[in-house]
């Protein structure tokens, strides 16, 4: 009888331990509202039951707005990437009108606010928006606008850039308006994507991936590599929570509050 009770206690202890083990959080994000995301990335995500964040710009129009509306109805997050994606012309070739070096902070904040209005017109959601700095630049006209964005109250969380070591290890050190992310390079392999996730599992709390094209367009992640990553995340869903940027950061913020 004692042996049976001991066995039950050991099993019970294992179950409690397994249930109490914290999952790491992986946030999948995609920039620029490009066709390959609608045609490749989203079908792959949907096949695995994963929700992700899509940072949209003002380039969406009558041909794609109905598609993005359907994406939102599936539970994906539509987020703010500014209206015109201004960047330094030394960073990316673009129209002179979109040169962030010629912007003022007021112009940038106004543009973010107008993009919020466009997003509301697309999905009808009144939840706090999240934001990704165009070209991961936190300055316009040589002036940092992070604190101005904070004061404006237009977004709840904002994503910056980083390398494949840009993982969240200490929630107390994360500025919600400067959340690091790995800017996934063109031609990345599935093994490299999985290695980033494993790094988060080994030494982090959460990690954000920043994709652009998937199976097409630019800064392209091969479709097979993207699918390989999703398969790994699915296989390890007891250890990894895959979620949107806003929901993932809500969890990080809650963990920070509870510490």
TrEMBL record:
<dbReference type="Pfam" id="PF01522">
    <property type="entry name" value="Polysacc_deac_1"/>
</dbReference>
<protein>
    <submittedName>
        <fullName>Polysaccharide deacetylase family protein</fullName>
    </submittedName>
</protein>
<dbReference type="InterPro" id="IPR002509">
    <property type="entry name" value="NODB_dom"/>
</dbReference>
<keyword id="KW-0732">Signal</keyword>
<dbReference type="InterPro" id="IPR011330">
    <property type="entry name" value="Glyco_hydro/deAcase_b/a-brl"/>
</dbReference>
<feature type="domain" description="NodB homology">
    <location>
        <begin position="20"/>
        <end position="138"/>
    </location>
</feature>
<dbReference type="InterPro" id="IPR051398">
    <property type="entry name" value="Polysacch_Deacetylase"/>
</dbReference>
């Amino acid at each position: 009888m004692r042996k049976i009770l001991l066995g039950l206690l050991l099993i019970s202890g294992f179950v409690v331990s397994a249930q109490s083990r914290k999952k790491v959080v992986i946030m999948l994000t995609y920039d620029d509202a490009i066709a390959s995301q609608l045609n490749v990335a989203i079908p792959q995500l949907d096949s695995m039951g994963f929700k992700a964040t899509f940072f949209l710009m003002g380039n969406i129009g009558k041909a794609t707005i109905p598609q993005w509306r359907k994406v939102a109805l599936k539970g994906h997050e539509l987020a703010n990437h500014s209206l015109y994606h201004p960047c330094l012309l030394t960073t990316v070739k673009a129209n002179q009108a979109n040169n962030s070096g010629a912007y003022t902070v007021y112009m940038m904040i106004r543009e973010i606010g107008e993009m919020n209005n466009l997003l509301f017109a697309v999905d009808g959601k009144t939840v706090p928006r999240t934001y990704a700095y165009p070209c991961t630049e936190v300055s316009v006209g040589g002036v940092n606008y992070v604190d101005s964005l904070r004061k404006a109250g237009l977004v709840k969380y904002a994503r910056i850039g980083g390398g494949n070591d840009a993982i969240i290890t200490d929630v107390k050190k994360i500025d919600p308006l400067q959340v690091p992310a790995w800017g996934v390079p063109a031609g990345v392999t599935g093994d490299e994507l999985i290695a980033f996730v494993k790094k988060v599992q080994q030494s982090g709390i959460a990690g954000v991936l920043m994709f652009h094209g998937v199976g097409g367009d630019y800064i392209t992640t091969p479709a097979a590599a993207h699918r390989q990553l999703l398969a790994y995340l699915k296989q390890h869903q007891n250890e990894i929570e895959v979620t949107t940027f806003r929901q993932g950061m809500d969890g990080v913020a809650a963990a920070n509050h509870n510490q």
